[in-house]
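Lecture 7 notes: from sequence to structure.

We start with a single chain of 289 residues. Read the sequence below before looking at the structure.
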Amino acid sequence: MELNLKSVIKKIKEENYKRILLQVPEGLKTEVVKISDKLEKETKTEGFISGEPCYGACDLPLEEAELLKAEVIVHIGHADFGVKTKIPVIYIPVYFNLKLSKELKQEIKKIKEKKLCIYSSEPFRKILCELEKSLLEIGKEVVNKQIILGCSEINQKSEANIFIGSGKFHPFTLKEKTYFLDLEKNKLEELTREIKKEEMKKQARILKFREAKKIGILVSTKPGQFYRDYEKIKKKLENEGKEAKVLILDEITNEKLIGLDFDCYLNTACPRVLDNHFDKPIINLKDIY
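Now the structure, written as tokens:
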């Protein structure tokens, strides 16, 4: 793992920050105390650590920073998502120094399609470039190479997709024929069938949404997920003959929705919320409007 703190230390010193709020994703929680200690020592600052779950650069601890009178948020693990904030945010991506194994190089030779789109998440940017090189060496054509988020909208431009990385959170945003180069299990897996199953589930949710009378509109307080046009959506639903109420939450979970009298929910926050279990149907805004 490559984590370069030199640039953030330099920035903190230049701006003369004295109070820092440090935020890391779940995978770095075991290192966060060491990171905080290093920043405090090198910059002579007072450091605080956000203990809440972090789902990406769309999920910044702005309220916590304000309560603690922090002058800057140091967000480790993700690149800048473009969220506008009053308090400065320093983003430090984390990169994994991995190489394509001999086994995976043999696996990619089994891919029959010639024109390919290849994708990964930010921490695996370097190995994505290595994958491109390996594909070109065996006569494949790389139509598109891109870093994607779990909420990215991707329109396929090739015969098949390849995602290289860890976990299925990101590749499930892809459509049509998709291969997954799993760096943890060191194997190639085709996800096309699973992706089609997810599409069928989505169509079933859309049908239930169309039939529903009472709709709960889910709005997230997370700065990069907050949907400002919730009132327009509410009015649109009411014009369609539905009863609609706006529910505002930080983290959207089944436990928070249990007991509420709605037939269905319309999610305006992160589309990956649907990866969790919910007792009542939930449909993403982008799948309806």
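The mean pLDDT is 93. Keep this in mind for problem set 3.
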